[in-house]
Design goal:
homotetramer, alpha/beta, six-stranded parallel β-sheet, 29% helix
């Protein structure tokens, strides 16, 4: 059986990455490709790295064009997914790489996104407790945000094992592709090369409630998250430093054991051997999350470092992994565990 | 049938890249991995991006360890390949990613490399006229240098069609991985980021005689090459600007036609549509060479731009492509035509 | 005496750089700062590195605001300088960092810029033969383009000494600031980091006629230039490789002698010792041009490498150096010969 | 009066930067330049950006060579400063850019550096409460570490005003020059470009006790610091995110007021206007520290972002500023408040 896939928003970074992965997926045939303002253009002019699709012409994003596929990936601006999904009907698997259906709490959504809440779909981070089961056979999937992917993988085991106090502090560095392909002055190469800067400081970033949702679920109690995202001079990758006060009795061994157990069978989450630390360069283009844990005795804190490729595991890889689970394909199909380095 | 492959020099950049490609090759099983000073280490500590091989331990490079494979890839310092190859015997395909067997002229070899000439093996650039036939069934392959790959693909069609005077001028920018993984002060990140610099100016670079050899063969006459390599602040990629005076009668249309015809059936050489220019970022991690041609009427010159990934098409991809041809496998097996961007 | 300076276009890269230099100029007081669409904003929001001027508010660019200064620096889009200069009158020194008054040939101007020729002003590259005299006491100065600065310094001595055939081949890499601060998708950090690409190939770049003009003047005959500019993943710097066939009798010694003599007394052009090569990283933020020459005997070509900071010696440094000469100030005032590295 | 300065360790990054600043200092004449393994070389071959000193030849580092200057800057490996300082006598100002004399607690020193404690010198961070007075007339100065500079400036005001709980969490990104100029594989351009990675996680970094010392002094109680340093793909700059739980009664206004007051008169610490965030690119080459504060109400934390140039304010700028204070020169002499951007 070959799955026929359409991609809405094929000219952007998330759309391009999902196409890169689908091109190497043995069970997928690429169908309609659509775009907003880039409709009518050759894909080769916009995504020159996707050589096998260079001569495809982008259609306008409409339900008509997207209908008739087994799966539709949505890489649309926030707020546009609901209308498209509704028109596609329940027979089609819709995988939304946008934020619209990630949050369970309508008030959170409205506070951070400023528009009415569209609903909540099964959450596409299968490595979270219980999530894999919720994806099997799903017809709708909300792919997690890139930062929440890195941070939830980092801290969920500690919270699930009750090792950490419910006040997490997270500082993460992201490559510039996380900010998208729309041309803005502060994202110019001249501005970002050689410079690091923060944004959304003080709890303002939209991914904060999503982290809180995931970590609170793991902890079984409300967890607060102080989250500071920073922009790093690299095109891809997220390096997250996540920490929390250790509960009494935690030590380095027990901490490591919890993480070894949590991810022993996960194909895409790799706890590094002791003494080796994650690097975004080691997961460039791969669906792997690298993790390492430390117990800082003097400060009394658990520190977890996680590295992912924001466009692969953090977006399009998570989307394809979720599709595989939803359609009953092998979970790892089309998903590289190997990165490109140097 | 599964081909069993060994890699000598698995801890360096060329060795790591050939492993990355072999991991996705449907007909290859990865056997022995060897190294020089890194023997005894886990591959995961040296090539953390090659997750499926992380627990492999590197053996010392000896003929005993390398024996018993169908193909052995050599990523060794110059001058060491001959001894290893000799011990392996004729039953094994040996693909040398070093320079030892590239040059036909012993005097050229000695002038540029300062050691006795080891010999000449079939040349692993199948897109050159006649080269593909020479690779079928070969037991030894000399993989071209990265710069000669970019430059020969750029100018061979013009010379083969007698469009250009036999004095080529080439300026190329390379990513730092071309300089290898040995730690040298001028290759520190602090030194290379934000800076471009030349080296080997004035005909001193060792790839110069290899370019001359290839272009002269295409032209049917001796071609001189003024070659200036530069180091660019990026890990991978070569962008080569190759030009030569046009012969009388050349115009933009006839020039383009020659290139369209030369590469019409090549899976890994892509002449871009008019108006679009190569970028190394578009071939990152792919085995594709992007080309574009221009005729500068005012200056009377043919200008060809080529972009490759120095480690893929320029080294390890060329090696795997050659292996495929030598062993009668599909030429494109294991070789991505798709890059990773951004 | 303190010179009062105004800067029109203070929110862009050229305007910002001229302000950086003027801030350290002992004889200059900074007066009006103007902008186009950024008028009304604090400079600190747009140029946060210029801390001493952070609280200045940008005025709209009008002759009224710019009047009453001793010198006005224009960093305006092409075609806007003439009107402003006219209104300022002859009592004010006007230093134009745009292209409007660089070319002597009206037909060249119209072919490359597509608008009527505004005229020709004294050319602000004092290191060219005769240029310094033309700047003394000037009331109008046309600052050279960044590429022509790098290339003219590289080849003018060879042409003036009749060492080279009149067909130059130039390939240059520029940092992204050369493309300005307007947000365009291909200049996003995500696109430029890790990638090199050419543009304006085949004689199309607007700086080509300016190079031809300068080199032809030095040679005393018409010189053709095949020019290929490339965009490099760095914010600043130009590395130019300029070459030409050597005339009979040239050798390495005579070549070097000519360059030693040409620049012996120049404060801002530095011929490196033999064996050392220019790097843009070594002139970051400095007004120095680094040069090195080679004679490639096998190819019969003179190869000259030059490195400048495109915003300093290539734009704003050249502007301040010209102002110094025009106003009779010490030529080196306010101009760093020292770069920032690493 | 002109101060005569010697620099020991002139071939490294800290030594080069102190020379860059001294070259623009109106009251300093540069005397002896020494090095370890680079003794005997031209400075121009090692620090090509320091054009005015290019022909200086490095002497071996001995007390004889360094004697007879008014000030000696030491940029030596840890553990070597005490012996040199002793031989120089009390008549000379010795400014140590190494770690040897920063820590007051001998046990801390021994735990983190593994060698006997050499002593404690006046601490060269004049912006800390009381520090400026301690530097006036000093004959010995210990220049702070780069990370402690960024973090102490960020959190000292909050602790001095009793706004924060004594458990700080700090994650900082540093440019690669912080790791020095010795060639190590993990610092190669190929490895660091496009990648972020942590090191010294879990309280292991040697700058941790220095931060604790400074913040505890400000707080009047023992402060713990969970510190995670990361390596960013840029040559210079530190961006530190420092946070702590807010004490009851803190709000955004009171927080801002404390910082405004703390740094109102500081020439080199700049609290940005509300809504603007620090960027390392804005302080490239400058002695300025940019700060911004936020109160994250939901998480109950004070978050302070600081950006410095690790080589300027973080090392050599701090050294020159301290020299100015010790010798009674204007504090800002030779120190740029302006950065180079983009």
């Amino acid at each position: 059986m070959t799955v026929r896939a359409a991609v809405a928003g094929a000219s952007g970074y998330a759309g391009g990455e999902v196409l890169r992965l689908l091109l190497q997926h043995p069970g997928v045939e690429i169908g309609a490709l659509t775009a907003g303002s880039n409709a009518g253009q050759r894909l080769g002019a916009l995504q020159p790295h996707l050589l096998p699709l260079a001569d495809r012409v982008l259609a306008a994003t409409t339900a008509e064009v997207l209908a008739g596929h087994d799966v539709v990936f949505l890489a649309l601006p926030h707020g546009q997914s609901a209308a498209v999904a509704e028109q596609l009907g329940d027979g089609v698997l819709v995988v939304d790489m946008g934020a619209d259906f990630r949050l369970a709490d309508a008030a959170d959504w409205e506070r951070f996104y400023g528009s009415p809440h569209a609903g909540t779909w099964p959450y596409g981070l299968p490595e979270l407790p219980g999530a894999r089961a919720g994806l099997a056979g799903a017809r709708r999937v909300a792919v997690p945000g890139c930062y929440p992917t890195a941070v939830s993988l980092a801290l969920a085991p500690a919270y699930a094992a009750r090792l950490a106090e419910p006040e997490a502090v997270v500082v993460a560095a992201s490559g510039t592709s996380g900010a998208g392909k729309a041309a803005k002055p502060h994202l110019l190469g001249s501005e970002v090369m050689g410079s690091m800067s923060p944004y959304g400081v003080g709890g303002l970033h939209r991914h904060t409630p999503e982290m809180i949702q995931n970590l609170s679920a793991a902890a079984g109690e409300r967890v607060t998250v102080s989250f500071t995202p920073t922009l790093a001079p690299m095109p891809r990758g997220i390096l997250a430093t996540s920490s929390a006060r250790a509960r009494p009795g935690v030590d380095a061994e027990s901490l490591r054991e919890v993480y070894e157990k949590a991810y022993a069978d996960e194909p895409f989450v790799h706890l590094l051997p002791e003494g080796q630390w994650p690097a975004t360069g080691a997961v460039h283009g791969s669906n792997t999350a690298q993790l390492q844990v430390a117990y800082d005795e003097a400060a009394g804190r658990i520190v977890v470092i996680s590295a992912i490729d924001n466009l692969t595991k953090g977006t399009a890889g998570g989307a394809v992994q979720s599709m595989n689970l939803a359609l009953g394909l092998p979970e790892t199909s089309g998903l590289p565990a190997t990165g490109i380095a140097p």
